[in-house]
Amino acid sequence: MTQTPTVDDRSTMAQLFTGRKSLVSDAYSVLTDAxxxxxxxxxxxxxxxxxxxxxxxxxxxxxxxxNEILHNLCINDWNGKANYQHQNFAKHWRHHTKxxxxxxxxxxxxxxxxxxxxxxxxxxxxxxxxxxxx
Length: 134
Prior knowledge:
single chain; about 130 residues; alpha+beta; two-stranded antiparallel sheet; about 40% helix; about 15% strand
């Protein structure tokens, strides 16, 4: 969302997980790309194992530990091709989410360092609200 460190743990990144059919979404604070495996485990623990992990060519997600988790839980792994954004649902959903978070932060005149809290709040609302599937 932004390069502004969050108010709680000073992270500047978030890892997003979204169900392609359910549109249920979760956001996790990320301090480094290497923590993807931890967020993957947290999401599986909270929501259950997904059928397929669709990713957007981020190298941190292809670690041996991540591959082992995917293999052990029989989770298919799909990697989008460069310059084929129409193939990647996550990019479209991220854009949709970003617009909602920006609207919320502007509406409430939030300081930039609460972007992660606003993102998690927006997901909480979106997870409990009907949404037309893409």
